[in-house]
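Example S7 (structure tokens).
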């Protein structure tokens, strides 16, 4: 633990913050059985159980251990995400139940998902995820791109999508997308330079101040997701690809640095991917 951080405990579960914070208000939501305190978003998240049901509680307002933004900015970011979850409601998206101010901050409550996350931040979960059969991972990818076709149809663009947003529910054989807080309505212009996200999944324009961020950008993100599921995230070569060469060529075209050479829509990517398989 960083010596500048403080350790707290709730319902027998320990976690780290930059400074003490009173989470006694969580009793309203139930008993805490899991804490996620390593996010760099400024949010701290809890798995809670009440009356036999489990929920995922995302809270902004505490100074989390890995965040470099203020608690006020974290609250603002979380509040702006409410209409995003409502507008993009989908069978593959985690379901928002409620949101509101509480405990000196802001909270969003979601249905709990018994899923394994693809992100390397959770090594045991990632290992189980990546040991899934090729057929299962193909279904996962299909559900991811289908959701993002829905995102575009709703007039949004995906921002900050990476493997930490991907979970798989083994019991129900279902892919769940979470953490879409920074998805935005189109048209959208890069006003940051380097945008939010994992560089492994980010297109060149997501590093370029003033660049258009649109469906062609998301084609790149989906191509990078294909490499994460079926190949190597960095070395995009046939030796590390687990599907046929035609599908590799589809994924390579999707992640072209030249926007004009990429597929110009998620729908076109889906059609080419299905034909290649």
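Recovered sequence:
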């Amino acid at each position: 633990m960083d010596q500048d951080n403080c350790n707290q405990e709730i319902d027998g579960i320990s976690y780290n913050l930059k400074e003490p914070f009173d989470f006694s208000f969580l009793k309203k939501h139930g008993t805490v059985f899991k804490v996620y305190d390593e996010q760099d978003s400024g949010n701290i998240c809890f798995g809670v159980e009440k009356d036999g049901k489990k929920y995922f509680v995302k809270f902004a307002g505490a100074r989390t251990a890995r965040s470099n933004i203020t608690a006020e900015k974290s609250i603002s970011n979380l509040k702006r995400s409410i209409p995003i979850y409502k507008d993009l409601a989908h069978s593959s998206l985690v379901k928002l139940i409620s949101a509101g101010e509480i405990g000196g901050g802001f909270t969003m409550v979601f249905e709990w998902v018994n899923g394994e996350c693809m992100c390397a931040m959770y090594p045991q979960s990632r290992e189980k995820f990546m040991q899934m059969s090729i057929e299962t991972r193909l279904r996962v990818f299909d559900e991811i791109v289908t959701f993002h076709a829905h995102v575009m149809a709703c007039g949004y663009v995906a921002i900050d999508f990476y493997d930490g947003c991907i979970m798989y529910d083994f019991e129900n054989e279902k892919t769940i997308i979470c953490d879409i807080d920074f998805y935005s309505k189109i048209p959208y212009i890069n006003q940051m330079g380097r945008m939010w996200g994992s560089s492994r999944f980010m297109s060149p324009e997501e590093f370029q101040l003033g660049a258009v961020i649109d469906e062609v950008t998301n084609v790149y993100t989906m191509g990078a997701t294909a490499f994460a599921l079926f190949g190597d995230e960095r070395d995009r070569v046939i030796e590390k690809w687990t599907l046929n060469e035609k599908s590799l060529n589809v994924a390579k075209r999707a992640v072209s640095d030249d926007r004009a050479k990429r597929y110009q829509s998620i729908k076109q990517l889906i059609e080419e991917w299905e034909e290649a398989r």
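Notes on this example. The first strand starts at residue 6 and ends at 10.
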